[in-house]
Every structure is written in structure tokens, then in C-alpha cells.
């Protein structure tokens, strides 16, 4: 079995005449096909826009993919950006509304590019997070442990994955969040209704 990657999906704008729910379903298939290995996908969830009040609710999901022919994390990111483009993603505003957002959250236990860089981005104040953008890929995603809309879907596919720096599993990070944040992440039934 090859390396595995954890990927978060989200969107809150229609694309191609389809609502965000349909975009996320199609994007899960596109991600699975792009990496050529087995994948496991979460349920779909409705979550408030982040930051609060910044747009319509999001549809979120997560997937665990096995990487058959990719060795470098940057190659994964390039493929994810290609998929985003196919679904109309435009990078206009940090944390802005979008048709599709694919976030590479982790690749096995890789800390990339190094622990010092990861720690810097992890320790940024909330105010600095809105102003600063890393110049390159940071893994694991430095905000992973803070976001219910990421951890709840991830717990469907990789509850026992352990953060290589924090030492906590997805389940432990999810369960450490305030209940009020967890309650905002609402699972959708097969028809897309709560």
C-alpha cells in the first residue's frame, strides 16, 4: 500500500448550474480518479461559512486517498488545484466564497517543509492568520486541530490518524473542540436534507 493523503473538500457557491452539494459529490469522484488508488470518503455535512457571516453555508466532506504514483506532497497539491480549476474555483479572497476548495491536510506523518516552519504557522494569532498566507505548502495543515468543519468529516475516514507534531488523533482533536462548534457541523442524509 502506498502513501495516504487526507483531503478536505468544501464549497458554498453553485457551479455549472449545480448546487454545492452536487459539486462536492462530483469532486470526491474526481479526487479518487486523480490519484488512482483506493479512497474512503466521509458523509456530507452542512456548515456555516468561515469566518462567520462571510457567505452561504458550506457543504463539507473529507477523503482519505491512497497515492499510487505520487511521491511529493507538492505534486498532490498541483493535482488538487487542477481539480479546483475544473470546478470553477477562483482564488480572489482568502477564506472567501468558492465553488470548490480542496485542502491537502496531511500526507502520512510528514511534517513539511520542516518543524520550525510548521510551528510558526501553527502559532500565528487569529488576526495574523487573516493577513498572512504561506508561500508554500505546510503539512499537516496548521489549522487542522481548530476546525470542526474539517475534523468532523475526517473522523469518518481516519479517526485514528495521529498528528505527527501534536500527538493527538483526529478523534481526540475533534472531541477537544467546544460542543457549540461541533453542533454547527450537520450531517446530511442521502437527499441532501438535514
Overview of this protein structure:
The structure is a single chain. This protein has a single domain (about 5-185), classed as Alpha-Beta Plaits, CATH 3.30.70.560. It contains 7 helices and 6 strands. The chain has helices at about 20-35, 75-85, 115-120, 125-130, 150-155, 170-175, 180-185; strands spanning about 5-10, 40, 45, 60-65, 100-105, 185. Helix 1 (about 20-35) runs antiparallel to helix 2 (about 75-85). The protein is globular.
How would you briefly describe this protein structure?
The chain has 194 residues and is α+β, with helices and mostly antiparallel strands. The protein has helices spanning 20-35, 73-86, 115-122, 126-131, 148-157, 170-175, 179-183, and strands spanning 3-11, 39-41, 45-47, 58-67, 101-107, 186-187.
Write the layout of secondary structure elements.
Layout: E1 3-11, H1 20-35, E2 39-41, E3 45-47, E4 58-67, H2 73-86, E5 101-107, H3 115-122, H4 126-131, H5 148-157, H6 170-175, H7 179-183, E6 186-187
Antiparallel strand pairs: 1-4, 1-5, 2-4, 3-4, 3-6
Helix pairs in contact: 1-2
Q: What tags apply to this protein structure?
A:
7 helices; Alpha-Beta Plaits; 194 residues; globular; six-stranded antiparallel beta sheet; single chain; alpha+beta; 6 strands
